[in-house]
Amino acid sequence: MAVRLPRGFRAGATRAGIKPSGKPDLALLVSGLPASWAYVATQNRAAAPSIHRGRALYAQGGALRAVVVNAGNANCATGERGFLDDRRMAEVAALRLGVPVEEVLTASTGVIGVPLPVEKVETGLPQIELTPYADAFAEAILTTDLVPKVAEAEVEGARIVGIAKGSGMIHPNMATMLAFVVTDAALPQEALREAWRGIVDRTFNQVTVDGDTSTNDLALVMANGAYGAVPLEAFFPALEAVARELARKIARDGEGATKLMTVRVVGAGTEEEARRAARTIAGSALWKSALYGNDPNWGRILAALGNSGARFDPLRVRIQVQGIPLYAGGALPFDRERASQAMRAEEVEVWVDLGEGPWEGVAWGCDLTEGYVRINALYTT
């Protein structure tokens, strides 16, 4: 079913020939009104030109009208040409829309180190048909993803729609993900920016697939005010729920994954320790492999916990997988076959109590399979 964008937003995509597959690969997301916006980008020091340009625009504090995205080419590690090509992509989109180039954000995803065929962008952008629906945009931004990722919510009449891509090179701060969330609520930019950083930390930055942080990722939210004002205390929880659903969908669609893993850590001394402990368990290659094999090897969970930096006494720790107690200060007797069968579900939950305090955190990941190795062994060949 087609997902309608909030009032005042339109989107579309085309086949520009950037992806070797010939699939849609160039997309536009446009607001008919100047929008307030918040933006969080990768911490990778080899960040792409699109990230450098996005940070500069963000610091200027102006409004945003559009995002242009190409998929199939990261336009990263391409020298000075990469910065010129990124700027040109924004200029062509701005000309198409009749808006200032400073109000157009760029995003790229795909292979690193290959020059962007900017002439294909110049030819393709005028061909994009803009509609009030998210579906074509959501499809065009994919790379190794198996499915588009869209989430939506409503707050007292205002709508929120989120669109994301991400499958591999996924790890906190951030991941190889692009996330675009739009709303017709009227929101003060300062309040939106203050809230978005925490929302990203609790959602997108709690996803890990393979421990690698991308050069191109970003999470953006735009609010154009076409509906009007809504209470912030109602809006921000709904915004976080949309981001959380997108984060879970990214983890479930991890390259080669067969199941989603949710790690819930309670009883931590601080919120950061809880989140860090959950992320470390979700990112453990040993535990992810055990998850794939349906092996309730709780020792790998405890070992990952010990590498997380979170404070705990092993004698007070408790571990459960799929609600089955496996460890409580020591090994517990349990039916290994029953536990293994329980792990064959599409979503597996790991629950850990550190026994240190009142804080908790959640992270999402997936199992590690032969499929992941195949995809990444042959990525450019």
What does this protein look like?
- With 381 residues, this protein is an alpha+beta fold.
- It has two domains: 9-249, L-amino peptidase D-ALA esterase/amidase, CATH 3.60.70; 260-377, ArgJ beta chain, C-terminal domain (Ubiquitin-like (UB roll), Roll), CATH 3.10.20.340.
- It has eleven helices and 13 strands.
- The strands form two sheets. Strands 1, 2, 3, 4, 5, 6, 7 and 8 form an eight-stranded mixed beta sheet that branches.
- Helix 5 (189-202) links the parallel strand 7 and strand 8.
- The chain is globular and about 70 Å long.
- The two termini are 35 Å apart.
- Catalyzes two activities which are involved in the cyclic version of arginine biosynthesis: the synthesis of N-acetylglutamate from glutamate and acetyl-CoA as the acetyl donor, and of ornithine by transacetylation between N(2)-acetylornithine and glutamate.
The biggest beta sheet is recorded as:
8 strands, mixed
CATH architecture of the largest domain: 4-Layer Sandwich
Count of DSSP helices?
Answer: 11
Gap from first CA to last CA: 35 Å
Order of helices and strands: EEHEHEHHEEEHEHEHHHEEHEEH
Q: How much strand? A: 25-35%
GO molecular function: L-glutamate N-acetyltransferase activity; L-glutamate N-acetyltransferase activity, acting on acetyl-L-ornithine as donor
Site (Cleavage): 175-176
Pfam families: ArgJ
Catalytic activity: L-glutamate + acetyl-CoA = N-acetyl-L-glutamate + CoA + H(+); N(2)-acetyl-L-ornithine + L-glutamate = N-acetyl-L-glutamate + L-ornithine
